[in-house]
Task: structure prediction
Amino acid sequence: MAKSAPRKRKKKLGSYPHFTVVFSITMSLFVIGLFALLFLHANKLSKVIKENIELHVYLNRELSAEELLNVKGYLKTAPYAFQKNGKPQIKYISKEQAAEKFIKETGEEFSQVLSENPLRESFIVKINPTYFESGKLEKVAADIRKIPGVFEVDYPVNLIAEINRNVKLISFVLIGFAVILLFTTVLLINNTIKLALYSQRFLIRSMQLVGATHGFIQKPFLWRAIGQGFFSGILAVIILASLLQYAYSEIAELEILKEQNNILLLFGTLIVLGVIIGLLSSFRAVSRYLRMSLDELY
Result:
């Protein structure tokens, strides 16, 4: 007896491409998250650079211990001194320490030529990032120069101007790309869900014909969209967290730029964003098919 040919499995009415929708939302959220992580780390890098800019305060020669303490006290209480763990970041450099540093960096032993140490005592002051502008720093330097016992104030003017210029340019470019990326992602997810619900159009019409209200018809689709958005957000977060952990393990210096609270906030935002975009896109698509006539469904 001849065997009957295997029947092809027919696609059921109302079948839904769950994998395609979840994959599209996950990839879109992953790209957004990756870009956001880049922005967070770039912002942290800018902050670290600003916090490590040093202002050198050179003192007059033969300064008494009392005058030295007065200069230090003024700098410690100044609003522009960077505070870390409640302590102003100010370091005193003696003439001897300055000489050791000079010899180490240049390899030149000036004591063989000069009878005395020509270098001055100084304070190294880390500046509050809010003062990280050429105009503000110049006012800070002018204020310090007025302190009795201060000889000169020095800071990298050109470097600061270059850093400010680059930070503004990078921020502008990143924000511009973020807006474009978010718009493109929303459009992509919206079209994916719209195409997915296209296979449900006759099921929606059948429910209308038996007297189901719009809210009743929309409810299962919206709940499914919430679940898909949430699951996609979780998947995107897992991929990003794994990628981030791998990057930290390969490049140890990146740990300095790690901001755990902001990263966790970003991951939570991605999950919520997946739910919101999926929900709104499904609502629009279902509403569209509810308004269509029978002829438009074909």
User: Anything to note?
Assistant: The radius of gyration is 32 Å. Residues 23 and 232 are 7 Å apart (CA to CA). Residues 8-14 have pLDDT under 50 and may be disordered.
